UniProtKB/TrEMBL annotation, chain A:
Cofactor annotation: pyridoxal 5'-phosphate
Enzyme superclass (EC): transferase
Enzyme Commission code: 2.8.1.7
An individual GO BP term: cysteine metabolic process
Keyword Manganese: no
Residues of the Aminotransferase class V domain: 25-393
Keyword Ribonucleoprotein attributed: no
Protein role: Catalyzes the removal of elemental sulfur and selenium atoms from L-cysteine, L-cystine, L-selenocysteine, and L-selenocystine to produce L-alanine.
Protein known as: Cysteine desulfurase
TrEMBL record, chain B:
Transmembrane annotation, as ranges: none
Superkingdom, natural source: Bacteria
Name of this chain's protein: SufE family protein
Domain Fe-S metabolism associated: residue ranges: 11-130
PANTHER family attached to this UniProt entry: SUFE-LIKE PROTEIN 2, CHLOROPLASTIC, SULFUR ACCEPTOR PROTEIN CSDE
Family recorded in the similarity comment: Belongs to the SufE family.
Record-linked InterPro entries: Fe-S_metab-assoc_dom
Amino acid sequence: MSLDVMALRAQFPILSQQVDGKPLVYLDNAATTQKPQVVIDALVDFYTNCNANVHRGAHHLSDEATRRYELARDRVAQFINANRREEVIWTSGTTESINIVANGLVQKLGTGDEVMVTEMEHHANLVTWQQACKRSGALLKVVPIHDNGELDLAAFDSLLSPRTRLVAFPHVSNALGTVNPIRQLTAKAKAVGAWVLVDGAQGIAHGDVDVQEIGCDFYAFSGHKIFAPTGIGALWGKFAVLDEWPVWQTGGEMIADVEYLSSTWGQLPNRLEAGTPHIAGAIGLGVAVQWFGQLNSADVQSHEQALLASAMEQAQCFDGIRLIGTAAKKVGVMSFLLEGSHPADVGFILDRQGVAIRTGDNCAQPLMKRLGIPGTARASFSIYNTLEEVDRLFDALRKAKMMLA
Amino acid sequence: MQLPSSEEIVDDLAFFDDWEQRYQYIIDLGKAIPGLAENERTPDRLVKGCQSSVWLVSRIENGLVSFDVDSDAVIVQGLLALVLAAYNNKTPKQILDFDIEGYFQALDLERHITPTRGNGLRAIVAKIQELARRSIN
């Protein structure tokens, strides 16, 4: 069996549009993925037939909204193989998920403690820990990478110490596409007693995420990277860890008993979910993971690898392309420079030909400095992209090269 | 090459019927303006976008404001040339009276000065307008 890409594409209405009279070639999937009709329908149906606040209404609509909203939590829990549904905390996305953990960590750390991240972090998984360290007096250590974009595993080992309290790393690098050996890294960090947070923003949409198998304490991800709406995501954490993690925002929903001068907190998941949640978004995320989970994950991965292989092969034959990030294990992300041209110019010329890519620092300024480049152009593939679209990318690049020479 | 006036640029760009010619024209305009020497690209003159960077130097002589600009991206440099054509060697009042949004609309390039574009162009326009406003007050 292989993926029926044309049938998949047909489920994404946005992909049939034209840009400046040319068919859209959407290769910015690492920034955000497009939404299948079932997800769009779920949002419309919620607001059309079911809108009410959750967990508090004494009426039919609220009961139905709550049922759908909590069903979405079950679906996400099942999708990532959480041990319990209460381990799934709704957030606005990966950034908020990491902030919840970092905010709590400040109360647990002091001088002499260490936090570890890698050189390939997105700002969301760097600035958060950097600021948590500043506030708590802990030391931030940064694990170097090799020039090909792979993590320096020997350095990872040597920087770990009994003082390491938390280790954070990306499942997949957003700028380079590198897939990290997250099980191995987690095992090493757990051996020194550190908490482990995996930034799953780029990892969630590429196949199997099994949080129990990974062995980490926290896995953070955004819905919009996996065919769900923006503004919704999740923090998964081990029950015992989340249950005693300091509360984040305070207010309604997260409390048990409230007096004027003191309050007690509710149970998981509510204790980390203050206020009215993004109900429609959560429902949309539940539908999205169920939809994605029904695809054969081996087929998904082999299709994505075929797109990547075609792109890498064409890039190597293309005079003037310098690939940034050539790790042995990558998802469908090709970061590159067109020699003699600024990435922003390449992006402009591609855009005029209907080809959508990302250009710039990829929200990873320290990584760009480490690699000695101002930024990159980045094409990132998803399940609905075709080999013909990879060819269109290179046709467009040939024109860019000609115009910018 | 003498930089054309903003009116001439509007006419020139209307003449082209495909995007390649239009962008080639913008790229050529960008190459025609002098830019800044490496040592003039100082951090205090930098307007950083997340996609490309722009440097701006301004001076006022005899009541006229003039600018030198540079960018690390050639299309942005070309877009800056369009801005210079409108603003260079004008009085502060002329600068403030100029309808820059309408100008970019007439050029069919308004997408480049929307707030979502991280190319620093909008920030440059704002800086020039601020400079003009301050020199009047």
